[in-house]
Amino acid sequence: MTQYLLNGLGLGAIYAFIALGYTMVYGIIRLINFAHGEFFMFGAYLGYFVLRDSGIDRLDLPQPLPIVLQYLAAVTAASLGAATLAVVTERVAYRPVRRAGRIAALITAVCVSLILQNLAVKAWEAKTRSYPDPRLWIAVADLGDRAPANLWIVRPFRTTGGDEIEREELVLSEGDPVDDAARARIRGTPDARVFKKITPSTEVAQGFVLLALVLWAPVLWFLVKRTRTGTAMRAVSEDMDAARLMGIPIDRIVSRTFFLGAFVAGVGGVGYCIAYGQVSPYTGFLPGMKAFIAAVIGGIGSIPGAIVGGILLGVAESIIPHLFRSELGWRDAFAWKDAIAFAFLFAFLLFRPTGLLGRATRVKV
Amino acid sequence: MYRIGRIVAPLCIALAASLSGCDKPEPERMRPEPKPTRPEPKRMRVGVILPMTGLQSTFGDESWKGMQLAVEDLRKQGFNPELILRDEKSQKTEAGNQAKLLIENERVHVLVGSVASGHTRQAAIEARESAIPLITPASTNDTITVEGGPYVSRICFKDSFQGAVLAKFALQRGWKSAVVVVDKGQPYSTGLADSFKSVFEKAGGKTQFEYYTSGETDFSNTVQNAANHKADAIVITGYYAEGGIMIRQGKEKWAGVPVLGGDGLDSPELVGLVGDTKAEIYVVSHFAADAPDERVRNFAKRYEERFGQAPGAMAALGYDVLLVLADVAKRCPDPADSKALARAIAETKGVECITGRIDLTTPDRTPIKDAVVVKVEGGLKFQATIPAQ
């Protein structure tokens, strides 16, 4: 049970990350931005290229600095890339139709989502790519008589599919005597370096996403509540025309909202792909859809609501099928987990159509 | 705010319905006017339906490369078919649509494809309706050729055999209990799981089933459920995109438990997808590039020279399907006569192919061939041949 709860929390944190962008954009211009999942996917791809091409063990720095730098670089590239894409999308696609009514904007959003997805297929092929694992490599200079830890050789390797990956092989397990055969094997492998390896599990990766959420939430709260831009956002959200009359540059504020929302989605994108080990052009679709639902559950337009809604949805998706399985004996409950979770959310909306933290009368950012 | 809830609630139902795996019929497309038939009837027009993009793209890519190589070889022997490739995008309905378009617009004489059984089934329905023969290079689900009637045949073994091979291999290794992880959305997966179970349990083994649906990315709960059974082995009957990621996510929880899979896992992508798991992974397949067989070695060498990568099972099957067609063309001078063509296909006997000798004279037009077991070790490495009898 605890295990299912933890899995749900990890997934929920990712939904929350994406839901934040939905909720902020909706809060300010009442647009359900269906292309948000694609911003997430775009960020995940940028992170993938940084992680793949930067090569952890090529940096001659004391561990764990290289891996920290590498992941910071990946997350920064992902979030800045996603944010830039969002700003461009807003300028090109959403701004011209902002005054044309909500249906026009909604249709535009669906179109943009499909266009971006297909562009990703064109640019990066419609295949599932394996996401680089986060690993800690500790270089071992002196082997000594007995191996101090699991020792691995790392060398470049080309898969039969033609992708260049780094492949590592276990040379010696902890405590093995260092014999001539092992030494010969290390020397005989060109470009090989010997490392001690620590691989965090999926749970650790999920834990990092949760941690990032805990760190991010106050930053967002601060941005929205305590900065000039944040105050302007709230003003635009309450009454766009009045805000314009008060001299608030509406276009710039909307642009910044998109930037912020997609920036957070980029962080979530890298986290999601590290936790589940893959990226494809369709990566953004289902999480994006679910994050939208999460934003609605939490009360769309409310930032704390998006976080609560995301966590709730993630946990529901994990716990409810588990309960169906253990209590009702539905052996294949996990194959229907999406249907079960969505049915639950549907029932929830029947009783509270404004979401958990949403208000029927007032609209918050 | 109130309105949003009213919009979203029905949206949720729609989503739930579409995600629960029921196939909604696609609205019928506008059909352009059929083009007039070509003047030269002797050249065989072959409509090829393969997943070139999407979650099964390596299946399509490899099969198509195998076919290209075969056409280059067969041209020298005077068989020069015209291949028309259509992408089914790893979607079931698209396989049916493309079959229809190939039959009606391109006037193909025979259809070849697809790979995943659920997708081939859609194409086979179109083939049966239009009485155009279809040969699938790699769909193993037992019912495909039965449902499709005399117009549908295949050149690979079927799942009741493949399941038995999996079971025999597991028993040989001394594994007494197995968790079977099944893709609920794919007939290939459920069929293979059932045939594994019946053979494995008859021999005294114990099986437990766990389920997922193709297209998922988060398998943490599936992995957990499977690990809870503490079985001797884990059998994944799905396709490589999900199977590979599942093995990767099972890095810790499945540590020390061997993983076994069917030909759906046989993809050059698998090695990259499983990541740095230490699990022993065995895959039952049609072909291994490094098997000790002269003909296989030759094919692997030429394929590698031509495409710069080692061939997988789909490449070999793609090659073989054209060898069979070349043999059929000798016995059927006019491919436009679809009845005669279907009969000629069903009379195929003793064609020596890369994946073995192909006889389609069996009642369900399925050859009886050997299977191989490969192990995932930086690539797919030959382990054993399991004979057909």
Description:
The complex is a heterodimer of chains A (365) and B (389). The radius of gyration of chain A is 23 Å and the shape is globular. Chain A has twelve helices and six strands. Chain A folds into two domains: 281 residues, Orthogonal Bundle (ABC transporter involved in vitamin B12 uptake, BtuC), CATH 1.10.3470; 63 residues, no CATH class. With 365 residues, chain A is α+β, with helices and mostly antiparallel strands. In chain A, helix 2 runs antiparallel to helix 3 and helix 10 crosses helix 11. In chain A, the strands form two sheets. In chain A, strands 2-5-3-4 form a four-stranded antiparallel β-sheet. In chain A, strands 1-6 form a two-stranded antiparallel sheet. In chain B, strand 9, helix 10 and strand 10 form a beta-alpha-beta unit. Chain B has two domains: 190 residues, Rossmann fold (3-Layer(aba) Sandwich); 126 residues, Response regulator (Rossmann fold, 3-Layer(aba) Sandwich). Chain B has 389 residues and is an alpha/beta fold. The N terminus of chain B is likely disordered. The radius of gyration of chain B is 21 Å and the shape is globular. The interface between A and B is large, with 70 and 62 residues.
Secondary-structure-derived class of chain B: alpha/beta
The name of the CATH topology of the largest domain in chain B is Rossmann fold
Question: What percent strand of chain B?
Answer: 15-25%
- CATH architecture of the largest domain in chain A, please? Orthogonal Bundle
Q: What integer is the average pLDDT of chain A?
A: 81
* Widest β-sheet, arrangement of strands of chain B: 7-6-8-9-10-13-14
* CATH level 4 superfamily of the largest domain in chain B: Response regulator
Q: What is the domain total for the residues of chain B?
A: 2
Low-pLDDT regions of chain B: 1-5, 15-29
**Proportion of β residues of chain A?**
5-15%
